Amino acid sequence: MRAMRWSILVVFVLCAILTHRRGRVRHGSFFRQLSDHSTFTAPLNWFAYLFSSVPNTPYISPRQFPELAMIKSQWRVFREEALALADASRIRAADGRTDIGFNSFFRTGWKRFYLKWYGDPHPSAKALCPRTVEILQRLPSVKAAMFAMLPAGGVLNPHRDPFAGSLRYHLGLITPNDDRCAIVVDGIPYSWRDGEDVVFDETYLHHAANRTEKDRIIFFCDIERPMKFEWSQTIMRAVGGFFLRAAASPNEPCDQTGGLNRVFCYIYYVRLAAKRLKVWNRIAYYVLKWCLFPVIALAMVWH
User: Fold this and answer.
1) What's the pLDDT band for 285 if we cut at 50, 70, 90?
2) SS3 call for 64
3) Are 221 and 70 in contact (CB under 8 A)?
């Protein structure tokens, strides 16, 4: 039993190292990667990379996903409903601590309106965006979708998303049509344009900025990563559905809140305490932080 635990620990460390070294752009140090949420899903993600039937590259041609042609052809429908939401101030930050996945983005003005999140469409989306939801219902490979706004001057810091079982699709709806409004994936920039789309692997380090005077609104969705074998697809679909459904966040009180977001407000108090410790004494903060990793590792092996 102890040998098995050591094996699991070694696999995690190896996958963390591989994740850190993946791509041309990395976190500043391996220790920064070690505390990143993508480390905890690294073994699952490397399973996805190994059995992926599309290239493991920062950007993937949308032509690899024929179903996306329907979305692109209907971009004006999405644009009209997104504009109506924006005019009504319904594309907004989460109320309280109910969006664990994107909570840090709200600090720089990023806003969203969920259409669906690894389950049925949100009731608020059905009511306010019926045509968009009707289109999405025809596309089972679309697992999550939203309208996302990056305001003028908004910046999203470098990060990796935690789950490689999906790929990220962006479709420009209302954009500055300007190279100063762009996302950079593994060091390669892409600037949004109205009616144009892009697919990228969000588990590469990426960041975004809107350095124009105009807000940017896109259609943003997660599409299922195609796998080489049906059994590998089934595994990724089951694991992703279970964990990511727990991160469902509401637009309105009528929408479901996932289990992770129901406890996020309590988790956030721990984060606040850590931040206060960091302000009070940075050395004590980092000593405590880095002592936790060997303690957790030893607990896994010796318990």
Assistant:
1) low
2) helix
3) no
| 25 closest CA partner among 188, 208, 161, 154 | 188
| φ, ψ (nearest 5 deg) of residue 40 | -70, -20
The residue count of the chain comes to 303
In the chain the first and final C-alpha atoms are separated, in Å, by 10
pLDDT at 18 exceeding the cut of 90: no
Q: Around Cβ 100, how many Cβ atoms within 10 Å?
A: 21
Phi, then psi, of 197 in degrees rounded to 5: -130, 165
Question: What's the CA gap between 49 and 41, in Å, rounded?
Answer: 12
Return phi, psi of residue 229, to 5°.
-130, 150
DSSP 8-state assignment for residue 225: P
SS3 141: coil
Summarize the confidence of residues 80-96 as an average pLDDT: 95
d(CA 36, CA 33): 5
Q: What pLDDT score does 274 carry?
A: 66
Domains and CATH numbers, the chain: 1-303 (2.60.120.330)
User: How many percent of the chain have pLDDT more than 90?
Assistant: 65
Instruction: State yes or no: pLDDT of 300 exceeds 50.
Output: no
pTM: 0.90
Residue written as token pair 């500043």 = 28
Cβ contact 247:194 at 8 Å: no
Alpha helices in the chain (DSSP H): 2-21, 30-34, 37-40, 42-51, 68-73, 75-87, 123-128, 130-136, 230-245, 259-280, 282-302
Query: Which is more confident, 7 or 49?
Result: 49
Query: Is 213 exposed, middle or buried (CB count within 10 Å of its CB: 0-12, 13-18, 19+)?
Result: exposed
